[in-house]
Amino acid sequence: MPKESDRFEGGGNKELKDVSEETARQRVRANTPSPHRGNTPQASPPRFVSVEELMETAKGVTNMALAHEIMVNQDFQVKPTELPEGSLEHRVKEMMHKIFWDRLEAQLKEEPPSYEHAIKLLGEIKETLLSFLLPGHGRLCSRIEEVLDLPLVQQQAENGALDIGQLSQFVVEMMGSLCAPCRDEDVKTLKQITETVPLLKAIFSVLDLMKVDMANFALKSIKPHLMQLSVEYERNKFQEFLEKQPNALDYTEKWLEETVKSLRETDDCAAASSDPPLHPLNVHNHAYLRLLRWDHASDPFPETVLMDQVRFLEMQQEVEWLVLLSSVLLIVYTTTGEAISGLPGLMETLKNTVSVMLTEMHTPSFSMQEALETIGEKLCVELSHCLTQHGFSSFSAESKSTLKGQISAVIQPDNTVRKLMDARIQSYLLATLQSSQHKTPPPLPGGLAPVSRELKELSIRFSRLVNYNKLVFSPFYQKILQNILTQGESPTTET
Asked: Is 300 in a helix, a strand, or coil?
């Protein structure tokens, strides 16, 4: 039967599967030898693979990506698949459903009525209701078995005593007892439908939504217990992929090698450091921090973090936004001095003004120069109004000009204030990774108080993502770092 549940084929994860399959294809392409790999060393000679091997590998990576998405995406949910309006699939589906329900309605209007398909529908409804029950729902189970006793229903149909409408109303009552609160309105609507066929059709539609609700409830319930299983599953799947694609860690090795090179150059310039720069754990943390400065347009992303490339890109853009926001606010504070330090709510008002103007800063049509000029104008107006309102001397023309000039200068990557705030945010994120094992948040660097909430939220997401990646890929990282660091010095601890 062309049920409404056809809308949820694949558990409602079509969109996620599409993303996962694209990730798989990218990973296969990224690990296939090509002339664009530059001077990256090849882990093994190129070998030919069959189409079957390639598809099997892609399927394994797709499954790994789905498991990964469930664990790292705090908002992961199973969602129903909606076919595009006007598409061939949508038209065929609508046509088949119409034929089915029209046929059912014709059968029920026969003299005497034919209940063959209606009873089959009741059987499917019964199975679905029973699947929603928990171990403590013994009475509900008995009630459903009693009322929807299919042999009894068949006998009633043969004797002309079957009341489909009454059974449908019982089903609606059971659905009201078992559904999530978000489905109360849907069930309420069912109670207003009086005709049998439209009611059955609507019942199946709401039952399919309840299946999705149940799937999401189950995922949420077992998610805390899946961590270790998911780590082992992803690690094993990646190991299988590595065995079929021996050069599948080339970009990861390059990423770690460049991090070590950068730290060694820094170490040559630094007099001393409380944390040895070439300590494997320190190298690893700095490597993750480099992902927030990545050139996604030209540099291939490391294979072990490829499934999270979009997340790292979003966090990178958020860091860039926080750098500009905190830079502008620091300029305002240093320009106006103590005059605004004690004014309640002023800094939050200024922050909201700047934040709104920078919201679209990563869109192609955004003009940073125009935005900063507008920000300067708006802040001068708000500061003048606020200072006058609280009895301070008005904002002079010279001060306005200075403020506007300093804000506009933030557009330059080598701007002193911008570089300072960027360094402080990067150091805070690095300290978050270093302190995550001790469960103690690092102190907030100076000048970042106005954006402390956003920065702390970002650091938590960044730390969670990094720590999960470490759990999955630590054996691979350990081996790579040992090989890299022994070229210069021996590692003292494992990653």
From this structure: coil
Contact criterion met (CB below 8 Å) for 56 and 259? no
CA–CA gap between residue 411 and residue 485 (Å, rounded) = 38
pLDDT, tens digit (0-9, with 9 covering 90-100), for 138-174: 899 999 999 999 999 999 888 888 888 889 999 999 9
| 95 residue type, one letter | M
**CA separation for the pair 215, 123 (Å, rounded):** 21
* CB 215, CB 80: distance < 8 Å: no
Separation of alpha carbons 173 and 184, rounded Å: 11
Whether 12 and 18 have beta carbons less than 8 Å apart is answered as: no
Cα 80 to Cα 7, 13, 218, 298, distances in angstroms: 6, 8, 16, 36
What lies within 8 Å, CB to CB, of 107 at 6+ separation is 113, 114, 115, 116, 117, 118
Q: How far apart are CA 385 and CA 44, in angstroms?
A: 68
Q: How many separate helices (H) and strands (E) can be counted in the chain? A: 18, 0
Q: pLDDT tens-digit profile of 392-419?
A: 777 778 888 999 999 999 999 999 999 9
For helices 116-132 and 164-178, angle between their N-to-C axes, nearest 10 degrees = 20
Spatial distance between the Cα atoms of 126 and 136, rounded to a whole number of angstroms: 18
Q: Print burial letters for 143-160: b (CB count within 10 Å at least 16), e (below 16).
A: bbeebbeeeebeebbeee
Instruction: Specify whether the CB–CB gap between 211 and 8 falls below 8 A.
Output: yes
**Residue 116 CB: number of other CB atoms within 10 A?**
10
- Say how far apart CA 186 and CA 171 lie, in whole Å: 13
For the chain, residues with pLDDT lower than 70 are: 1-64, 267-277, 337-339, 341-342, 344, 436-439, 488-495
CA-based nearest residue to 10, from 70, 92, 80: 80
- Rounded Cα distance between 318 and 381, Å, is 27
In the three-class reduction of DSSP (H, G, I as helix; E, B as strand; rest coil), residue 108 is classed as: helix
Q: Which amino acid is at 121?
A: L
- Given a contact cutoff of 8 angstroms between Cβ atoms, the answer to whether 250 and 462 are in contact is no
CA-wise closest residue to 251 among 207, 186, 305:
305
pLDDT digits (tens, 9 = 90+) for 329-385: 999 888 876 667 667 678 888 899 999 999 999 999 999 999 999 999 999 888 888
Q: Which two tokens stand for residue 450?
A: 């106005």
Task: Indicate if the alpha-carbon torsion angle 206, 208, 211, 213 is positive or negative.
Answer: negative
Q: What's this model's pTM, rounded to 2 decimal places?
A: 0.70
The label of the residue with tokens 């002023």 reads: 346
